[in-house]
Amino acid sequence: MALYAELHRHLGGSVVPRVLWRYLQRNESDLIDRFTHYPEFEDFYTRPRNTLDEYLELHTLVEGVQTADALPYFIYRLMRGAYIFENLAYLELRYTPFLRTDPTLTQSERIDQMAQIVDIVGKASQLKEYPIVSSQILCMHSRLPYEVNRALVDLAAQSRDYVCGIDLAGGDAHYAERLDEFVELYAYARSLDLNTTGHLYETTDGHYPDLLPYLMRIGHGIQIPLHHPHLLKEVARRQQCLEVCPTTYLKTGTLQDIRQLKQVFNLCFEAGVDIAICTDNAGLNDVRLPFEYETLLTQDVIGFEELQACQDAAFRHAFAWRYAQRPASLLNRILMTDATAS
């Protein structure tokens, strides 16, 4: 069995349509009243959108459902699918805990409740029957107040048993007006020795070079090789890894053809910049990690050697993977030992 690492998966976008539909049915949610049958819901949930902002609106639908009581239901099914269908050995789940708190509470009370959400997600992710090394990345959000984002960074520093890093999400077109604020928050996070990634250079609106020095990985980053290749030298020098999520760019209208990624991979390989192939929103995108691999291969975006390099890079840049090698190497060693013994 090949065992993979997934570095960029959103908790909100990871819910498979059928799982969400069944949950909404069982809880008599009015969210599905406009859909007569499941195929209509699945089409609405997974169809391509025109822009990233339109695509991200679907997250709000799921975030409202992923309450403290419901999170174990969704996470159990997420982990089961990741283990059985995707052969994942390592998974980082990212989300904004504030958006899973009780909206009837005050902002201060919701900030306090974020620790409970992190604890619920952490415990629900530890499943003996589906042994995956997993950790959380907490997402600051472009549409949340400074006080909430600052508290989120503090929570990440206080929750290292469950949390391996922080992120900035909410659509990269919305950072500009608060750029100094986000630079300050990332500098603060690094002062706390937190691992950092961030949604940058996903779209042509995501050009924020002032944030790059604070990141250990770059969420997406495809516009760097496509439109700002002069930055690749610095990205390589900092040993930053791009988290490339192929299907997302088709779903958001960012790219028109998956083969446009060939330039991304080629220029990054030439510059010595690592890429980890990821799914981003496996449920919204109706895709699993092995399918992303297969699509890139069959569309001649990369070859098998490049794929293996990306798989190796994913483990090398994983924030909570504590081993020097990826699982396949460990299995090879066991097999060689058994062969020698025989």
Automatic annotation (TrEMBL):
Top EC class of this enzyme: hydrolase
Which cellular component terms (GO) are annotated to the entry? cytosol
Task: Report the EC code(s) recorded for this entry.
Answer: 3.5.4.4
**A molecular-function term among this protein's GO annotations:** adenosine deaminase activity
Q: According to its UniProt record, which cofactors does this protein need?
A: Zn(2+)
Q: Which UniProt keywords are present, listed alphabetically?
A: Hydrolase, Metal-binding, Zinc
- What is any Pfam family matched here? A_deaminase
Q: Where is the Adenosine deaminase domain?
A: 5-320
- Tell me the domain of life: Bacteria
InterPro entries with a match to the protein in the record: A_deaminase_dom, Ado/ade_deaminase, Metal_Hydrolase
Which Gene Ontology BP terms does the record give?
Answer: adenosine catabolic process; hypoxanthine salvage; inosine biosynthetic process
* Family, as annotated: Belongs to the metallo-dependent hydrolases superfamily. Adenosine and AMP deaminases family.
Would you tell me the protein name for this molecule?
A: adenosine deaminase
Originating species: Myxacorys almedinensis A
At the highest ranks, the source species' classification is: Bacteria, Bacillati, Cyanobacteriota, Cyanophyceae, Leptolyngbyales
